[in-house]
Design brief:
Layout: H1 3-25, H2 27-34, H3 37-53, H4 60-84, H5 86-89, H6 107-128, H7 131-152, H8 159-168, H9 170-179, H10 184-207, H11 209-215, H12 220-223, H13 226-243, H14 246-249, H15 255-277, H16 281-313
Helix pairs in contact: 3-4, 3-9, 3-16, 4-6, 4-7, 4-9, 6-7, 7-8, 7-9, 8-10, 9-10, 10-13, 10-16, 13-15, 15-16
Length: 319
Amino acid sequence: MTDIGLQADNATLASGYKKQQGSLKNKLPVFFSLMKPRVMSLVVFTALTGICAAPGHISFTTGLIAVMAIAVGAGASGALNMWYDADIDAIMSRTQSRAIPSGKVAKEDVLSFGIILSILSVIVLTVATNILSGALLAFTIFFYAVIYTVWLKRSTPQNIVIGGAAGAFPPMIGWAVVTGSIAWPSIILFAIIFLWTPPHFWALALVKSADYAKAGIPMLPNVRGEDETRRQILLYSLVMAPVGMLPYYMGFAGQISFLVGLIGGSAMVWWSFDLYRKREGKPAISASWRLFAGSIVYLFVLFAAILGENLLSSPIRIW
């Protein structure tokens, strides 16, 4: 081998070493991004609502451990989702910058990371609280990582409808943390998120339909058409709006939650109707983004109202 060849190889090794050092230096933010922090924050928030709305008392320490375990379980689901979806993430414009497609982390490391976090979160929640809450967390992780990610997402336009159950379980888990049981109030909280998910994600799918088509994901606009998607968005919103007021009628939320459910639910129906009647061009795109963003505000404010009213009515519930 020539001196020039040796110098080239040494330069390559040095470059690789520096790159590895950089990846080690930045690995914590990268692995945290794999946990889908924005989704994880919503999971934590809705689970905390379930904890505070449930009858009974738990210590602050137990509540904190439970919330952290649920957060880690949600993060594990996100990591496993990114591991399996690395191929399509590399195709879609909105996901190309994720950790695996951008080369920031090895795919096999993400799999190990997701499995380890899944096991730890379930064990910690079970030991700290009860078997039911741990079992529900385990089922939620399995549902999102396997039933939704591996099976539904790539096989049916109803992927978001059925898969939305995974995102709806956290308040039910929170309720089980306190009571060790499943009751109608926790089912109502589950139903609100379950019915909210299709209008929320299909509004985005209408804008990103070309991206999903390129990746081969059978989202509703690509399979059944945009008009049918708009119709189903409106139907789901019409069903969801009254369900959002049920916490008040079932006695585990107050008048503020009722007003938020009434006004926010009406806004969701109006945004959905506006999207239904605007079919083309910039007005249709604007209506889609309005519903997508507005639905996030609706869900956050509704659960914040339920959480706040329960904290005010029993401020030492988790102390």
